[in-house]
Design a protein that fits this description.
Elements: H1 3-11, H2 19-29, E1 34-37, H3 44-55, E2 64-68, H4 71-87, E3 92-95, H5 101-108, E4 114-118, H6 119-127, E5 138-142, H7 144-147, H8 152-162, E6 168-173, H9 183-187, E7 192-195, E8 206-212, H10 218-226, E9 233-237, H11 240-250, E10 257-259, H12 266-277, E11 283-287, H13 288-291, E12 301-304, H14 311-318, E13 328-334, H15 336-345, E14 351-353, E15 355-357, E16 360-362, H16 409-420
Parallel strand pairs: 1-6, 1-7, 2-4, 2-5, 3-4, 5-6, 8-13, 8-14, 9-11, 9-12, 10-11, 12-13
Antiparallel strand pairs: 15-16
Helix pairs in contact: 2-3, 3-4, 6-8
InterPro entries: DEAD/DEAH_box_helicase_dom, DEAD/DEAH_RhlB, DEAD_box_RNA_helicase, Helicase_ATP-bd, Helicase_C-like, P-loop_NTPase
GO molecular function: helicase activity; hydrolase activity
Protein name: DEAD/DEAH box helicase
Length: about 425
Amino acid sequence: MAEPFQALWTAAGFTAQTLIQEAVYQPLKTDQNVIGLAPTGSGKTLAFGLPLLEKLVPGDGIQLLILSPSQELAIQTRNVLQPYAKAVNMRVTGVTGNANVKRQKEQLKQHPEVIVGTAGRLVELANAGTLKLHTLQTIIVDEADELLRDPGLDQVRALTMAAPADVQMGFFSATASPMFDQLDQWFGIDATRIDVRALDHTQGAVQHLFVQTDNAHRVEWLRSLAHLDHFQALVFFNNNGTLEKVAGILHHQAVKFAVLSRNDRSTTRANALAAFRKHKVTLLLVTDLAGRGLDLKKLPAVINYAAPKRAEAYIHRAGRTGRMGASGYVITLGDDHDRRDLKKLVPQYAIQRGYLVDGQLTTVAPKAEAAPAVPAASAAPAPAKTPTTSARPKPKAKAATAVAPDKPKHKKKRLRDQKNKGKRKPRG
């Protein structure tokens, strides 16, 4: 490691390189194309960042381009690398979508050595002639399994076409992609695959719990979990529509939450993430793309509002907790059918039934639910009555009286009344 980096490394509390940091250091420094596979939370940003910063020359223009699938990950990566770049007199600039493009153009005129950005905005600037990549040495595709899917693949290819033909490329992720076997076809390169996932054990003790509930009570579970002591969670949704619906319900309940939505302005998203990091809110509602790669220190839990459809999604979601040796929970809400599907989807995880007992998460069923006839969903506290979850009780139906059609009830009553009043007419 370069001497200017050592003080920063020690100050951050690092004592030794992780497996991925050690494995890719020399290949990246010697201009090799690399595929780096390592668990989430194993320090991939510094794994590619430090050896590449050592290669750069201050004042020689844009030399390193790092591509991220989301604005939040791009800014996070920029913030991690900035102190190290400053130590060697270089600048790192973040260029993301939904941000002020005029300001970004002004920043590019200062010729930073490192750019971290989202592919869509970078392609836009390159097509406009504002972003010139003729001095580029290396392109890093972070969270590559996500970025090499449509439309990211075409955007990454467009940027490589604007770079020198011999540009070095690095692809990093926690999960493999079929595209890694087709890099020659799409980019005309061969890459050395470095996979330390089976050897790296930097993740802490994480419990994978499945809470049985129906659709009507999922929000109530969120509210109950949010009121646990010292609890915070990243809540993942499979689509934006469900996220927005749940956010509308939580808005009327006593839950401190924020939303990280692709439809919001960059400042709104940055404020939501900052509020969560400062523990001003308990739940941060996200989709897979918005939550990809986020580094949240000692995050207690990840909640899957619904089970994901892809194994890669579950792996990346789970990787937000238990980082750098900390413990955590991955909690999935759903019914028995969802539980069976999830266990088939990710058999590598020991997924257990989860319960909420006396304000604690546990895998031990309450005594009231020991009998098979009692559904596990009743382990949740009684749901509060809200406009969106409560139903007005139906009035009880009046009991019907059976009356024979040939003997009307009212006829007998009339005859009795006439007799009592002495008005009964004689027969005939």
